[in-house]
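Dear support,

I submitted the protein below through the web form. The confirmation email said the job was done, but the results page showed an empty box. After a refresh the structure appeared. I'm attaching both so you can tell me whether what I see now is the final result or a partial one.
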Amino acid sequence: MKFRKSVTASIMAAGVALTLATAGTASASTYYAFTGGKAKFTSKGEILKVWDTKAGKTGILVFVEDESAKNPTLDTCAVLGKGKTKTCNMSFKNGHKLKIDVYSYTKQNNPDTYKIIASWTDKA
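What the results page shows now:
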């Protein structure tokens, strides 16, 4: 009985410690998964990281558009090759609404090869 109480107390203490250690560490990052890749957008600093997870000659191209600006601005991030990643430092005004469109492509400079595979909104 003593052993069971001490094990229970130890587990509860570990749970409280874990809760306290993670409290207040909410991330400003959002992860997205889509066919052929994944992306992580971090609003602090407007950092977009893109992964290509599919083998072949198809890459991932991401367009990020600031829809809140008087003169909308656009930035892109592209990666090609299974297992490759690309981190892009974008510059948008804090709090602005961003539209993010993800395309697969076979030729980055040829929009005729673009195929939209995901779309979402986020905030800078």
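Response: this is the final, complete result; the empty box was a page-load delay. The two ends are 55 Å apart (CA to CA).
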